[in-house]
């Protein structure tokens, strides 16, 4: 018999009444009722209410114990009366009458209470993360994470995938985010890089003749923190398949995600066959390639309307003549909203750094007209054309933005979500997935105006290889895709370029010579030269998946030991300085900033 417990704190029921048992755990709460002292004892599995009478000789000893002291109690299970049953816990039909107690672990004064879900500062929560993790909500999130990973492993194996581990110490890659570098003691002056992703290794696994690979892979990127991205490290379901096309990858992920999200959430899945949306269409209709499809609002292009003679809104007309675009969001049946609602949206847009959102509301008495600050500038004919282009109705309001394409997309993307929130249009009981497809292979770097890869440089371009028009690289689409849920990008993926000669040509467009490719991607290009199968894959983020399932807005809430916004581990005091002896051993010197 285990000397610490016969049962866990989430196990006992009225079927155990009159049993002599022992429990061990933390004191979650104490309630002194004069002649009776109640203790809620907590372990990983739940909470059991324990009670001791004042007449018991150990009453005083228990009374003095602090919350979060670790104790073992022995006692008798008794059934609660009907009026005292607690339906919120699994052990709510019983309590344990304490006969004896042993103190297993004492506690200092707590910097934060454990039994409360009250918000505390990031600094306190991360410095005392071991206490934070005892709190009910975050404790359950981490258990959920473990169950999700186990489920994914089982399902991937059922789908015929084999789990392999790829190296953590590898070479630095010139593409992607900033690397974390590790100095080599045995190779002075040289460095390993922690993998940003197992990209090249998983492709090499396919070249090695394995058909389907996956792993729950740690990835390391020296990036700034965001609500949906941890600084430093994260985990992804990394997978790759041989002899596949884009739809084959989609079918695996849709099969997995439908099972996963149905098992761990009661939310409805809006489309069980995930919609495919072309990248350019996504930017037009939603202003972003990460659209939240729970939001019914869509964006329409009205640039040509402002080339008409019967539209007199001269500010926009002049901008359009100089190359600007005009796009609009229509809100349904908002004619009765107060002026303050519309002005509030305009002011909010200005606070975001834009020039604001012009607006008017459609109405009709004898003829179609528009009320609002700019309504008078439109003829009935032009308004009819706007109605046709936007599917608007009388009583709807049209919000307009004019400027450079990327600026208009940026403000209308966030305005779309802002307006939907204000109008209560988003159903939080839904998961809405979609695929964003047909990404451009290349784009123009806004800083130096040079052509660069827009996505993954190892992707296969669309079209017949021998008929690709490499003289117009910005017109080339790639077999690259993202999966998005509720406005959160879960993953990017691609069908890979497995043809070395084509890879040389594609890299040449962004300024890499054949020698550059051979030098920087030697392992990959060499392997592809020995007979590589067509292959492709994807790598959904585990952290973001669990964040969605746990209904959390910040990835920190589903990560066991996250860093803070400055990529510091406050609990373990990392990063830290190292000794002169360590520096010498690694052939390094520290150059102090002035």
DSSP helix count? 16
Largest sheet, strands/sense/barrel: 8 strands, mixed
Q: What is the first-to-last residue Cα distance?
A: 64 Å
Shape: globular
Uncertain runs are none
Strand order of the largest sheet: 6-9-10-24-23-22-19-12
Mean pLDDT: 94
Q: Strand content of the residues, in percent? A: 15-25%
Supply Rg.
Answer: 30 Å
Number of strands: 24
Briefly note the structural class of the backbone: alpha+beta
- Helix proportion of residues, in percent? 25-40%
Commentary on this structure:
Helices cover 27% and strands 24% of the residues. By secondary structure, it is an alpha+beta fold. The strands form 6 sheets. An 8-stranded mixed sheet has the order 6-9-10-24-23-22-19-12, with helices on both faces. A 5-stranded mixed barrel has the order 1-2-3-5-4. A 5-stranded antiparallel sheet has the order 13-14-17-15-16. A hairpin with a 3-residue loop joins strand 1 (20-32) and strand 2. Helix 13 (514-520) crosses helix 14. The radius of gyration is 30 Å and the shape is globular. It starts with 19 loop residues before the first strand and ends in a 9-residue tail after the last helix.
In short:
With 594 residues, the protein is an alpha+beta fold.
Looking at this protein, list some descriptive labels.
alpha+beta, 16 helices, 594 residues, single chain, eight-stranded mixed beta sheet
What's the helix and strand layout?
Layout: E1 20-32, E2 36-43, E3 46-53, H1 59-63, E4 70-79, E5 94-105, H2 122-127, H3 129-132, H4 136-158, E6 162-163, E7 181-183, E8 191-193, H5 199-207, E9 212-221, E10 232-242, H6 246-264, E11 268-269, E12 276-278, H7 279-286, E13 299-301, H8 314-321, E14 325-331, H9 339-351, E15 358-364, E16 368-371, H10 380-390, E17 397-403, H11 405-422, E18 430-431, E19 433-437, E20 442-444, E21 451-453, E22 480-485, E23 488-495, H12 500-509, H13 514-520, H14 522-528, E24 535-538, H15 542-549, H16 580-585
Helix pairs in contact: 5-14, 13-14
